[in-house]
Amino acid sequence: MPGALTIGIDLGGTQVRAALVQGAQILRRASARTDVAGGPNAVVAQFRQLISEICAPEERARVAGVGIAAPGPLDSETGTILHIPTLPQWDMFPLRETMQRELGLPVVVENDGIAAAYGEWKHGAGQGLRHLVYITVSTGIGGGVVVDGRLLRGRRGMAGHVGHFRMAAEGPACACGATACFEALASGTALGRRAQKAAHDGCGGFLAEMRKSEAVDSRHVVRGARGGDQLCLALLAEEARYLGAGFTGMIHLFSPERVIMGGGVSQAFDLLERGIHAVIARDALPPFKEVQVVAAELGDNSGLVGAAALSEAARPEN
Description:
- The chain has 318 residues and is of the alpha/beta class.
- The chain has 2 domains: 5-111 and 301-313, ATPase, nucleotide binding domain (Nucleotidyltransferase, domain 5), CATH 3.30.420.40; 125-296, ATPase, nucleotide binding domain (Nucleotidyltransferase, domain 5), CATH 3.30.420.
- It has 11 helices and 13 strands.
């Protein structure tokens, strides 16, 4: 029997997305640029508009619930946004209560990293596992953890902020206010900054050429590496070392069967995989060296599918 119809929503600092989901299948999807300046009320209006685009009136009565994946920190027990650096007007916003009132449907609000972890666990690269770590490497670094066959939630549902453990005493500033966090060193933003510096320093090659017409970022590093540019390949090798160090820490901390890497940078996983595993093989304690890192199977849909699946799991009959 096919699963119930659910709606997954992904709230991001640059884009909001909504999808009509059945099991692991996305039936329809729509997106819009986040109305950051308009604040929560404007974004809630965007949610309503996107839902009207993906869900026909005759389907609306069949929707069992709505799951929202949002950056945090947030309190998933109450569905309240506590603070989002990229959405400054959202502090203490009661997102679940607001959306339930607007839609007349049950709503689950979850950290985007935990939602993506759940999506991969139930429908992606983590199916059948009892222990996994999911890490999204994109603008920032976030994630979620499954231990003993259960999502790790912690106090107020805020566990899994894997991007904010410090990897060194000194280093680049992080958006959280600390320095040398995993995110500050290994995120797509950090890779982009290193690429910009290399292009600015006049090292030549692909990045210097790109800098003449557009702002260089991590995507250019991947493009250049796929074209054989030596500087881009060196930058990705450095990125793999940072990721390998962070993943080794996660492996020691949570003892997963598998680490799953998602987010925009994971599109270069085939170029990063060998370097990541080399660091784990070198630095992990012997019983942990065999843990594999794999790419997310659901790609950029992990959070949408996971949020929708969480809303279905929260139904009373489940």
